[in-house]
Amino acid sequence: xxxxxxxxxxxxxxxxxxxxxxxxxxxxxxxxxxxxxxxxxxxxxxxxxxxxxxxxxxxxxxxxxxxxxxxxxxxxxxxxxxxxxxxxxxxxxxxxxxxxxxxxxxxxxxxxxxxxxxxxxxxxxxxxxxxxxxxxxxxxxxxxxxxxxxxxxxxxxxxxxxxxxxxxxxxxxxxxxxxxxxxxxxxxxxxxxxxxxxxxxxxxxxxxxxxxxxxxxxxxxxxxxxxxxxxxxxxxxxxxxxxxxxxxxxxxxxxxxxxxxxxxxxxxxxxxxxxxxxxxxxxxxxxxxxxxxxxxxxxxxxxxxxxxxxxxxxxxxxxxxxxxxxxxxxxxxxxxxxxxxxxxxxxxxxxxxxxxxxxxxxxxxxxxxxxxxxxxxxxxxxxxxxxxxxxxxxxxxxxxxxxx
Length: 404
Prior knowledge:
Elements (H helix, E strand, L loop, with lengths): L6 E5 L3 H12 L3 E6 L10 E4 L1 H9 L3 H4 L3 E2 L3 E6 L6 E3 L8 E4 H12 L4 E4 L3 E7 L2 E6 L5 E3 L1 E4 L6 H6 L4 H4 E14 L7 E7 L2 E7 L5 E9 L12 H7 L7 H8 L5 E8 L5 E2 L2 E3 L2 H4 L8 H18 L4 H30 L4 H25 L14 H4 L9
Parallel strand pairs: 1-2, 1-12, 2-8, 5-14, 12-19
Antiparallel strand pairs: 3-7, 4-7, 5-6, 9-10, 10-11, 13-16, 13-17, 14-15, 15-16, 18-19
Helix pairs in contact: 1-4, 1-10, 2-10, 10-11
């Protein structure tokens, strides 16, 4: 017999959790969102959102509300070492792709959802116990409650995944053997809608402008030798040594890094055989982190949120059927994005020494040429994002299908 699931606890008020709460409410569910952070951060975090994500935001009615916060997608300029002519990749269409800071996007998502969902900030889940009628949830601060379903949208290091799924984080998370450092630096280049990438054997440095800010996002990427993997977290000093002999803008980036709030992490992907256990399901990075270099984590979060809510609604809340359909629908998108993440790492920090640089330069030029040829023969149509088609209309509430 189908289970009419109406109350849903969403753990995590990031992009995936907030977007899912919106769609769940539109489909008639009663969402409660809990997040351990009491407020939005003040970090200048930059997001690029491609075609699928923009399509979801359009159907949420958010594009006009975000218009003043959005910048155009950048042209990407690759420099392979300090010598040789740069290779430029054209920017995707601004109709299908956009750049935005994370905090304005989250503010609008939460504001859109606030009238239809309960938000519990500054709290977290400590225990989950499934019963025949629901999931009994214990919180760090709030009193225990029972929900029909629990959605874990709490990121790479998901508490829900740890509570409900077998295995450890090491079983769920795949390390690509690359360290990434992200931080903000003053705008010393004046570049607009441009990402510059200096590619060296086993490492790369990137600079990109941040919409609405007189600042740049700097990214340092370094492949870790096999004998260094699992030996602990790298520090800014370690990265400064690795990039010490590089030219271009790198010396200025390293100088600014000493004054910046630097976020350093290993590039990782979440790979699970299934995204659900009973009445508990995972969403966003908790289920299928593609890694930040793919540029697809936000797109997957938005697609996954719309898909999960829509599939549950289509089966009247029967979580078994709904979770199965959600996973079947999203798997191709996740696999495509995770391949993109690995390819991007190979492009920015190629292995193979100087020969690897030559291979990547040749491959990139060939790919750009192929894109131009395809665009010519298709009349310049195409979209900003390749990969599986996303059935937006399927996931809209019944009365809204065919209206967007």
